Fold this sequence. Notes:
Blueprint: H1 2-11, H2 18-29, H3 37-48, H4 55-66, H5 73-81, H6 93-97, H7 104-116, E1 131-132, E2 138-140, E3 148-149, H8 159-166, H9 180-187, E4 198-202, H10 204-213, E5 222-226, E6 231-237, H11 246-259, E7 263-268, E8 275-279, E9 284-287, H12 288-294, E10 299-304, H13 311-315, H14 331-341, E11 344-349, H15 360-366, E12 371-373, H16 376-388
Parallel strand pairs: 1-2, 2-3, 6-7, 6-10, 10-11, 11-12
Antiparallel strand pairs: 4-5, 8-9
Amino acid sequence: MFINFFFNLKSRGVPVSLHEWITLHYALTMNLNDSSLTSFYNIARAILVKNEIFFDRYDMAFLDTFGGIETTDEMLEQILAGLKKVKELHLSEEEKKQIEQLNLDEVLKNFEEQLKQGHYKNHVGGNKAIGTGGRSTQGAWGYNPAGIRIGQGESRHRSAVQIAEKRTFRNYSSDITLDTRQMRVALSHLRSLLPIGTGEKLDLKKTIDETCKNAGEIELVWQTKEKKSSKVMLMMDVGGSMTPFSELVERLFSAASSQISKFKHFYFHNCFYQDLWTDMERNQSIATMEMIKSEDSDYKVIIVGDAEMAPSELTWVNGAIDYWYHNDTPGVVWMQRIKEKFTDVIWVNPLPKRNWQYVHSIRMVRDIFPMFELTLDGLDEGVKFLMTGKCGLYNKK
């Protein structure tokens, strides 16, 4: 059954390594799950699942493996009625080593046999029967490093299955619209872009000089250096066709601003021209060229927008959709300037990727910026691109 659990996890796309699998078995040999399926559910998830986005897949694999072994209320009450409470069994380390070790399949087989034969009525002690104060793999107030705990005020055998059935983490699935919590998970990769502070490196020349002065006795000389720190800039499309996604973009802004210390943000509508807005409600803006000249080129830039507009908004002088706004330079030129200024730039699109090929303006924007879908997988892939400069299979056109 454990082997089935491993393959069920792999088939669901949970990246479980053999090292983690061995670690889980080591935890079981130490009885860290306390002979409880619920504890096993939590311990196995803690050891085997490295990222929250796989919690839902873990639950489904757990259900596939252990869903059929839950204990019904009627069966539990029937067994409990035949169990007499006794003092909890305590064994020496030597006595514990002498207890027969059984795998889960053998435990379940033994449990079913004892239940069928009715070996649970006032049974105290023993190595096989369902009872109390014994060494069998099932019962209460006894001891066995692997088995089924029944009653004694602990959680019921089926509770772990119920937890998995609820699938509390189904919203962590990677192909759905993100909420703030999920965005923080994906944006957590950006922590590696943040300044780490000052570091030290060996000053070889001064070390040699000082060592010579000390007649050959080594004198290490260190020099403090500033580690390179990157910053993050978020540019967000607002209004028009982006209105349905306004709450989603706000969540992204909230998640990014809470995760990143050196963070700047700007707003635009459909396409950016000679102005970027710092506050849309108060109509406060900054000249785009001023921003390009004043900001450092090592900003990691994330542009959020659906890129859905008339092609003329990208290619024409005065092509801006706002009648009162006149742009002397086409929007596509401003996009190229942003790309030339900042080395690492991505465009994140809330529209489903399957629709991108049918919108001419989206294809035009994709020719300038690497584009990623605003899902957990898409945002995760986009952040990795900002860190490595490489697009994975996800962003292939």
